[in-house]
Known about the structure:
Strand order of the largest sheet: 3-4-2-1-5-6-7
Low-confidence stretches: none
Distance between the termini: 20 Å
Structural class: alpha/beta
Amino acid sequence: xxxxxxxxxxxxxxxxxxxxxxxxxxxxxxxxxxxxxxxxxxxxxxxxxxxxxxxxxxxxxxxxxxxxxxxxxxxxxxxxxxxxxxxxxxxxxxxxxxxxxxxxxxxxxxxxxxxxxxxxxxxxxxxxxxxxxxxxxxxxxxxxxxxxxxxxxxxxxxxxxxxxxxxxxxxxxxxxxxxxxxxxxxxxxxxxxxxxxxxxxxxxxxxxxxxxxxxxxxxxxxxxxxxxxxxxxxxxxxxxxxxxxxxxxxxxxxxxxxxxxxxxxxxxxxxxxxxxxxxxxxxxxxxxxxxxxx
Length: 294
């Protein structure tokens, strides 16, 4: 089992013919992802060779869906065109849009998230590494060779910390790892993933990675208290962030004690979540909680 992405998923890549799109399409194919084509109106009807496989380029997402039955799109288009790309995918009826692009204006993200929701399209991102179901499919830029299929579900704001925890726990493996992105507005939240992992019979434990800024982790803690029965282990990035300093991640807005790493840690621990002080300690807590389940 997995959440959102399986070996049956048929993946389009919007922006496949660009530099990043080409590089990561090749990596997704190597991971076993069923990439069925790309989308670029200026290069429609061409094919692109990826080692031993040639993929068609479609003029629109709708054309790609009609020809291949695609149900997932990965968006590698520049920020100025991301809103139009997501709206096009939603209009075409895509089920899942994974928006890798960073630097998208917040008002564009607000607009396309609302539009996609009205059309029944789930958004992951923007400014995210995507998601991977190890051994089945990889939609985005997460390295596929640092872990294996297993029993842990992971949801994270941070791409880098997603990779680190995957590597630290590679001997156990993961059901699905979802990088939701760190922008102020994201389509799929910690809570969405917690609910999906709770319902997934093959996910035994959930790892939640948050970071300073906003109140997403506090809201996740309330959801865990009321709805999650599986063990949850957490890590919050940003304990060493200096007070009064502007920080890089777009979602990292701290006001007083609200949004600090300590406040988030306390909220999670209050509902039974074990919270590590470093990624390595977090991995050790996961191993301890899994041992308790036996």
